[in-house]
Design brief:
The protein is of the alpha/beta class. 30% of the residues lie in helices and 25% in strands. Helix 4 packs across helix 5 (157-168) and helix 4 (127-139) packs across helix 10. Keywords: NADP.
């Protein structure tokens, strides 16, 4: 099969190889998926760059956890009727070496849920990390109806979906954005108000936008850098659900202030979510896709031959939307 892989850590151009590898077989409880697309996420490029030094100890790694395609075969214990089913895959390269940047992936059947016919394979490659992370951040601490949720970086890959999940759940949403175009996008997605996180004391602007009240929950893209401003606008008993802290990798916490506000900080990563949370995210996502309730933004679509470029785009940033690599051309 055609695949991309790396045998050493390094830059995308230096480390990534595109060539032929043996086609996998579906083992017990697994399905063999003929992939049409694979999604590229920050965790994928960090792994390739060497963030996990022991990753290559077992041999070469086919990167990427997300993707979408069609089940071609099933292993022992999996219903034969799943053959021919359109699916998305997630966690393809978590706790294992062979991910979704290939013609085929053999993966636990539960990690390959049905992809609605209304949904393209390109969108299917964006579900695993962007959509499921957003779902967990919004709903991890219970229903959101009647709550006010702040989504920082609302135009980003996760923030984009977090706004939509929060609105679907009945919350009031305030988002942050740094320019007029991103502000307009957040409003189109359903945000009730948008403040500029490049401006000084933007946390106070959040309170002003919320009629003088503090927010109940925060979906946070830059925990360490934004925490001082979050402290100005989060309510007593509030929750910060954060999935990234890139600018300040090891934040210092104002412990006493946070303690006296009875705050909860929830760290979110799809891989470590409870199985019940994963299944809830999958079920809600499939239902929303079938009903056309989620908007999507795919910024770049590249062929497998240009996988190095897809990694470079994620590293460079400066754009919103998902990056998808097409492995097999399709009509959808």
């Amino acid at each position: 099969m055609k695949a991309a892989w790396f045998e050493k850590f390094g830059s995308a151009n230096e480390a990534l190889i595109v060539g032929d590898l043996p086609k996998p077989e579906a083992g017990p409880g697994e399905v063999l998926v003929r992939l049409h697309t694979t999604g590229v996420n920050p965790s994928d490029v960090k792994k390739r760059a060497g963030a996990f030094p022991t990753l290559l100890d077992g041999g070469l790694v086919i990167p990427h956890s997300d993707g979408a395609g069609v089940i071609e075969a099933v292993g022992e214990g999996v219903d034969q009727t799943r053959i021919g089913e359109r699916v998305f895959v997630y966690q393809a390269q978590y706790g294992r070496r062979l991910g979704s940047a290939a013609d085929y992936v053999a993966i636990d059947s539960i990690r390959a849920p049905a992809l609605p016919d209304e949904c393209s394979f390109d969108v299917g490659a964006c579900i695993g990390i962007p959509i499921m992370t957003a779902h967990r951040c919004v709903y991890a601490d219970g229903e959101v109806v009647g709550k006010t949720i702040l989504v920082t970086g609302g135009a980003g890959r996760v923030g984009y979906y977090a706004i939509q999940w929060a609105k679907l759940g009945g919350a009031t949403v305030i988002a942050t954005a740094s320019n007029a175009a991103d502000k307009e996008l957040c409003l189109q997605l359903g945000a009730d108000a948008v403040v500029n996180h490049r401006e000084e004391n933007w946390g106070e602007s959040v309170v002003a936008a919320n009629a003088g009240d503090r927010v109940d929950r925060v979906v946070e893209v830059e925990f360490g850098a934004n925490l001082p401003e979050i402290m100005k606008c989060i309510a007593i008993g509030g929750t910060i659900a954060t999935y990234s802290s890139t600018v300040v990798g090891e934040p210092t916490l104002p412990f006493r202030d946070m303690m006296f506000m009875d705050l909860t900080v929830r760290m979110v990563i799809v891989y470590a979510m409870p199985e019940s949370a994963k299944q809830a995210a999958v079920e809600d996502t499939v239902a929303a896709l079938r009903e056309g309730k989620l908007a999507h933004r795919i910024a770049h679509v590249l062929p497998l031959a240009d996988i190095a470029r897809s990694h470079e785009l994620i590293e460079q940033g400066g754009f919103g939307g998902c990056v998808v690599v097409q492995i097999t051309q399709s009509d959808d």
